[in-house]
Backbone:
């Protein structure tokens, strides 16, 4: 809706004044008046739902310093001096409290400088530890929107001092004696630098071990900004000139409000740059200062001067005489965007003298502007009604306009709507609140040819509402324009349990008004009247959640754009099926699964991914009737073969020498498809590592290597390419095993994007390593991942003396072992599942999560000699991550029904670092395809499948889940070797996320 709304701060003040009289009365009643009201610890009810004592504004001077809200003060008394208490606070859902501070004593200085324990803004519940002062007291200030705050003060039974991690007063630093200072981030730390030369420019530099930042101020209450530094890059600096007193004030804080950054270290340094002439010219004064008396309050309005360096205004009042100079402690500091302020909690009938000063960025203060106001008593008279009220119908909209009343305390108009009759002040739907001087409102997103009834209520600053003025209108489509707007683009649907989230991009037509969504369960709605209406969303809306979708049922959605003349575009449609996580998505091939049978017998999937258009790519090999070929299939999102790819949706590479296989696949930024695996040498026996690149159209890329194919071999021996990844420069990195003295070495090859070995990597483009586990026989690299620093992480296994161990190697981008990882670049582990035999532990898949941690999936032998699923998570330094599973490891057995062999083939991480693993498990007769799901903490995600596990059985024999990927809406793609009775087919499942 196009509504002229109150500025957020003005709206808060308006709401505050509506309820201010009741809050003051209730707070006074809660305070009590005698010693009998004092209770040690907490109240008998166990909470302090109202202030024990309301300090400022009631019992002490400076009554108008902040008012009840947005800043209120509380005294917890009757405590034991020196005892440590836990102060808890919470509030109902929907209320929002901005901040709270605990103090060691009564407020005598700026609340920022005296803060001892800061309660996190916006948290529904929070707590701090604090030692009661010598008087048995804890003081608190809390500021924000009007809310029902529940306090709970609990005796911890301990005594002593509490290090809150904050600076209660600024740390004094001298110059040049203390030209550098090392400290740690403690939510907000304050520093006072003295001994500088007046008018000289200094560079202040901050170097941080983590994401800290700093701000430099011109005054000691940290209110006039001078410069600052952003610690995102771990260091920052800015130039600042010293005040005439030779001083500078700084604040250092954790920039991200995340607890893990508190306590990070930093270094502050300061050094001179040269002299400048400080600005000593005061800004012009504020003008047109007006004070409006309200119920126990005063509204101040003024016009700020036009000075370019205006930083804000100071506001202050006295009950003795008009103020002439700015006091330090009790002034209100407002930013330059503010031109009004409400002082509340004042005494009806009393005279107050107000002063307002403009202040610039150099802390120069203008001459004062004064106004004297006698505070009003209770106001129960609402303003007059609006006049000249009109309602103009449009296409799916009604435009309202009116003339505001002239009452001095008129604050705005509340508009309410009903489709039955004129609503009262609390009836119907709230359309909007229009603050003075606004006098119009557009109500859109309505239904044409339906009657709407409107009531407009004027209100004042004391919350009095008028009886209301009435009107009605009926929206209707226009005439003349018959051209619809363009269609939406990028329509996609994200399914989940019982709902579908739809997203799209709106067209750019000047008369575009919105989007209508319709759905059906049979076929996609073809016109704007087909199917059932889901929603009619006015511009600029571009997302909608349909929460009425039934799990397991395929829904067809169509999006129609419309304009202000009621013209609807053609449909843009898609199909989607909501469901429980882990269930088959039946919008794929109507069943959630598909298979492909090649020319004869054996076909397998070893990799699956999607391209930039959401098409599904599966790779592996297919039997040509004689042997196997490298093969890629491309499917449309609905599971139909994309016949524009390769030949009828299939692209193959056949060396002509025997069995060729694609073990892994990646799509580059140009849409080219890169396969890594092996091909047979001309002798038809030995295998060579092969990298093959197809264009996005499914033909061999003649611009890559030799006719689209790169091969690498070590004489007449077997070499296998097992995995492929792209680094940040587009280089192709292959994890492999190469023959060496009758055994195998782990190998990493790096190719340029043109398909030749990159000689800047390990000298010749090839890195090899053996004997990682000390057995001296074989080392194999089964999987590869590239981290954010282009370091290469390879997972695999290595022969130990009597067993096989899981190994992770990390190489620098230049192709040498990274000795910052696990001390020597190699992490070795065995016995994850508690047993051991000749193939005890093996890493089959590896990925890097959002925090740079290394996740490895594979197998480990248990105490019975069977292999279990195993997942290891390592820190970036190459140690087991104790926050994952048990000591950094997760194991699982018996997924398919019997505690026998589990095999692992691939790994997937979701956006929340959840872990999905693909493999197979024994059912006692054969093997079933299995997908496991774990949370980022390393426990089974019981919301996925059956207790965190999905099992699929063709019923024809053994099935293996050998590849995993996630499409652009989060659905999980599972590549299969699917048993077809007497052979295997390439298969694919799609699961609801």
Residues:
């Amino acid at each position: 809706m196009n509504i002229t709304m109150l500025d957020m701060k003005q709206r808060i003040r308006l709401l505050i004044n509506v309820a201010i009289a009741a809050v003051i009365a209730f707070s006074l009643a809660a305070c009590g008046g005698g010693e009998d009201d004092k209770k040690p610890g907490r109240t008998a009810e166990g909470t302090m739902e109202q202030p024990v004592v309301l300090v400022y504004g009631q019992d002490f001077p400076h009554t108008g310093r902040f008012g009840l809200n947005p800043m209120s003060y509380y005294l917890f008394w009757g405590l034991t001096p020196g005892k440590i208490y836990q102060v808890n606070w919470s509030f109902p859902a929907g209320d929002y409290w901005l901040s709270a501070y605990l103090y060691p004593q009564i407020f005598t200085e700026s609340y920022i400088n005296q803060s001892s324990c800061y309660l996190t803004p916006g948290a529904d519940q929070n707590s701090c530890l604090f030692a009661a002062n010598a008087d048995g007291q804890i003081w608190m200030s809390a500021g924000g929107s009007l809310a029902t705050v529940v306090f709970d003060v609990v005796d911890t039974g301990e005594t002593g001092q509490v290090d809150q991690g904050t600076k209660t007063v600024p740390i004094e630093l001298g110059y040049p004696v203390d030209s550098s200072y090392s400290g740690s981030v403690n939510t907000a730390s304050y520093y006072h630098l003295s001994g500088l030369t007046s008018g000289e420019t200094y560079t202040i530099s901050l170097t941080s071990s983590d994401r800290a930042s700093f701000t430099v101020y011109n005054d000691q209450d940290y209110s006039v900004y001078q410069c600052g530094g952003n610690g995102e890059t771990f260091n920052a600096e800015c130039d600042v000139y010293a005040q005439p007193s030779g001083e500078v004030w700084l604040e250092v804080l954790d920039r991200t409000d995340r607890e893990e950054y508190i306590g990070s270290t930093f270094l502050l340094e300061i050094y001179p740059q040269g002299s400048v002439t400080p600005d000593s010219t005061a800004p012009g004064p504020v003008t047109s200062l007006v004070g409006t008396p309200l119920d126990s309050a005063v509204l101040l309005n003024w016009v700020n001067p036009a000075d370019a360096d205006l930083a804000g205004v100071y506001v202050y009042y006295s009950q003795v005489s008009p103020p002439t100079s700015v006091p330090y402690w009790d002034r209100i500091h407002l930013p330059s965007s503010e031109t009004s302020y409400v002082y509340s909690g004042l005494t009806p009938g009393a005279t107050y003298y107000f002063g307002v000063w403009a202040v610039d960025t150099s802390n120069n203060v203008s001459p004062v502007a004064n106004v004297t106001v006698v505070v009003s008593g209770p106001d129960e008279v609402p303003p007059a009604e609006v006049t000249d009220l009109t309602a103009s119908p449009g296409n799916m909209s009604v435009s309202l306009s009116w003339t505001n009343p002239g009452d001095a305390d008129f604050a705005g108009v509340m508009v309410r709507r009903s489709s039955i009759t004129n609503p009262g002040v609390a009836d119907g739907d709230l359309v909007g609140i229009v603050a003075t001087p606004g006098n119009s409102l557009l109500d859109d997103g309505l239904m044409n040819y339906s009657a709407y009834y409107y009531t407009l209520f004027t209100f004042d600053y004391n919350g009095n509402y008028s009886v209301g003025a009435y009107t009605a209108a009926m929206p209707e489509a226009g005439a003349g324009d018959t051209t619809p707007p363009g269609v939406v683009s990028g329509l996609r649907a994200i399914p989940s349990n019982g709902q579908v989230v739809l997203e799209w991009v709106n067209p750019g037509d000047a008369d575009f008004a919105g989007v209508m969504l319709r759905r059906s369960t049979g076929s996609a709605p073809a016109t704007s009247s087909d199917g059932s209406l889901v929603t009619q969303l006015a511009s600029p809306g571009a997302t909608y959640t349909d929460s009425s979708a039934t799990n397991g049922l395929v829904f067809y959605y169509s999006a129609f754009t419309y304009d202000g003349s009621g013209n609807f575009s053609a449909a843009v449609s898609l199909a989607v099926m909501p469901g429980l996580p882990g269930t088959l998505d039946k919008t794929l091939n109507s069943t959630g699964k598909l298979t492909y049978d090649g020319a004869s017998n054996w076909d397998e999937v070893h990799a699956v991914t999607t391209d930039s258009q959401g098409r599904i790519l599966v790779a592996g090999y297919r039997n040509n009737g004689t042997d196997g070929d490298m093969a890629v299939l491309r499917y449309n999102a609905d599971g139909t073969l994309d016949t524009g790819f390769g030949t009828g949706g299939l692209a193959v590479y056949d060396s002509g020498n025997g069995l060729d296989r694609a073990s892994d696949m990646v799509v580059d930024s140009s849409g080219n498809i890169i396969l890594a695996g092996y091909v047979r040498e001309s002798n038809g026996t030995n295998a060579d590592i092969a990298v093959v690149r197809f264009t996005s159209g499914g033909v061999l890329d003649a611009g890559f290597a030799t006719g689209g194919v790169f091969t690498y071999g070590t004489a007449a021996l077997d070499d296998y390419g097992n995995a492929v990844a792209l680094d940040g420069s587009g280089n192709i990195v292959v994890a492999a095993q190469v023959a060496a003295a009758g055994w195998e070495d782990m190998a990493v090859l790096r190719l340029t994007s043109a398909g030749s070995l990159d000689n800047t990597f390990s000298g010749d483009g090839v890195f090899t390593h053996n004997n990682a586990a000390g057995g001296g026989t074989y080392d194999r690299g089964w999987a590869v991942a590239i981290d954010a620093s282009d370091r290469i992480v390879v997972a695999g296994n290595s022969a130990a003396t009597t067993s096989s161990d899981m190994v992770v190697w990390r190489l620098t981008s230049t192709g040498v072992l990274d000795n910052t990882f696990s001390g020597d670049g190699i992490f070795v582990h065995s016995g994850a599942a508690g047993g051991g035999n000749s193939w005890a532990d093996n890493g089959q898949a590896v990925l890097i999560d959002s925090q740079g941690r290394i996740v490895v999936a594979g197998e480990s032998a248990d105490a019975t000699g069977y292999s279990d699923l195993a997942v290891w998570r390592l820190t970036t330094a190459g140690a087991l991550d104790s926050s994952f599973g048990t000591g950094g490891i997760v194991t699982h057995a018996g997924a398919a029904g019997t505690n026998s062999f589990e095999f692992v083939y691939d790994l997937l991480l979701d956006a929340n670092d959840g872990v999905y693993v693909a493999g197979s498990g024994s059912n006692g007769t054969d093997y079933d395809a299995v997908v496991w799901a774990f949370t980022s903490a390393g426990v089974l995600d019981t919301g996925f499948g059956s207790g965190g596990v999905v099992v699929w059985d063709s019923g024809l024999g053994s099935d293996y889940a050998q590849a995993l990927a996630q499409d652009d809406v989060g659905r999980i793609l599972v590549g299969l070797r699917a048993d077809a009775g007497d052979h295997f087919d390439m298969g694919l499942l799609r699961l609801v996320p």
